[in-house]
Amino acid sequence: MNRKLSQDVNVFTSSGSDSSMGSSAALRLISVSGCLLLLCGSSWGNNATVPLVIWHGMGDSCCNPLSMGAIQKMVEKEVPGIYVLSLMIGKTVIQDTENGFFMDVNEQVSFVCNQLSQDPKLKGGYNAMGFSQGSQFLRAVAQRCPDPPMKNLISVGGQHQGVFGLPRCPGESSHICDWIRKMLNSGAYTDIVQKHLVQAQYWHDPLDDDLYKKHSLFLADINQERVVNETYKKNLMSLNKFVMVKFLQDTMVDPVDSEWFGFYKPGQDKELETLQESAIYTEDRLGLAEMNSAGKLVFLATNGDHLQFTQEWFNDNLLPYLR
């Protein structure tokens, strides 16, 4: 189970001069903690736009003006009148950030499902965009909570087959990452670690597939590893599009192929298999094969490290799924 985990810090660089993310197409978005901090505010949508729900990633919160707030402004500028909801898991930004490390993922998903069901502006449906771990959390929302309906799901650097390594993560100065690595290496599938460490709930050990399938509280469930929940499958297949973005120079996600639903072949951690080669696809446990045949799966790639992309790339490749 020991997996070498390095201790680098992920930082998004910016190459634009406009601090509000407005003008330069070469502008790079800032990543704090491996996930963009986006959209804490919201605006009233009009009848011509589809609302957008965003879930930030590990170490982020809903409301950092240097990342999530910048993305919000960018989306609102490009899609006038859109209603954007950035999910805050907890009552404060501090709680939101901490919960990205320590709150049971299934409880987070239930919290979000309840919030979305009570938002009258989402009644007619919404698009969803997840950053890093927020991507697989939103997929769980799509599978478990079909009301209100999710239309398009955009996964930006999400890990849909989990991770087997944590080479880079935020929070080094507070020693959070060191502690997480120790917990994952010492017993990711123990009850106490599974229940109280978010990253353990999508830790996928290919060297002990049976242990993963038996004890993973979150990922094994939403990936239908134990039993096939036909409701999960039906709900996911109701999406119009499931867009997955892979970062070709990613130094945070291990393996990076998980961003396209690929992973290591079972029993070893060297050779990879694509989604199309995996049992989840060949057995079509989630309906992904049928979705792919129907043109509902979209695989996008961009050069850059985890969550690094330009405004121009975002506008050209992701905005069409938000209009």
Automatic annotation (TrEMBL):
Coiled coil: none
Alphabetic keyword roster: Disulfide bond, Endoplasmic reticulum, Glycoprotein, Golgi apparatus, Hydrolase, Lysosome, Secreted, Signal
GO CC terms, sorted: endoplasmic reticulum; extracellular region; Golgi apparatus; lysosome
Family of this protein: Belongs to the palmitoyl-protein thioesterase family.
Subcellular location: Endoplasmic reticulum; Golgi apparatus; Lysosome; Secreted
Enzyme class: hydrolase
Protein name, per record: Palmitoyl-protein thioesterase 1
First-listed, main subcellular location of the protein, grouped into a coarse class: endoplasmic reticulum
Domain of life: Eukaryota
A GO biological-process term: receptor-mediated endocytosis
